[in-house]
Amino acid sequence: MKRLSTVTLVSAFAILVLLSSLAFAAGVTNLTSTDAKSLLARNPKIYVLDVRTPEEYRQAYLKGSHLIPLGELERRVAEVPRQKPVLVYCSVGQRSLVAAQYLASHGYKEIYQISDGLIGWYRKGYPIERGR
Asked: CATH assignment of 27-123, given 3.40.250.10, 3.40.50.720, 3.30.2320.30, 3.40.190.10?
């Protein structure tokens, strides 16, 4: 009986490791603003998703970004193209992580999120747009 329990435990652990690795492979890639800038330079076809509020967006945003506030993402997820990589950002990386995980859980395959947000981007002196 003890041997069966050990085999069952080892099998359960192996399945857990496999599921974790699959979740990681289909998950979210966290990027610093520096890495995100490099990614955008290499791949200009990335869909850039801003999940902040409209008020925040009017103050500053990344060129070419699309605003879908986090609170509206569930209702508007069909606006985010599935055939393109998606780069998600917010102010400091909290809301964008939630949004990126939501997209991953809904079958989006290539998702990046800026872990230091637009504030990190701005502090590094990278270009932003204003007043839209």
From this structure: 3.40.250.10
